[in-house]
Amino acid sequence: MENNVTIPKSSLDFLVQLKENNNKPWFEANKAQYLIELNHIETFAGALLKELSKTDVLENASGKKSVYRIYRDIRFSKDKTPFKTFWGGSYT
Question: Cα separation of 24 and 3, whole Å?
């Protein structure tokens, strides 16, 4: 992969902390850290997209647009925790 891009441990550690504190006040207090970790994930997704594009035709314009949002849709869910506790995304 380009320049050995990896997901740093801090991005996974953030998810552990989020799982333990899955509420809006904690998230708002730690949003700056979330944005830093999201940038790492988007960079990784971009590098992975570049590698995949060497052998496959993909429609995604960037890794940033491939990453899913962290906010959960809780309207019809019994589980009212507001945030996902995983990084996710897809390529088309």
Answer: 36
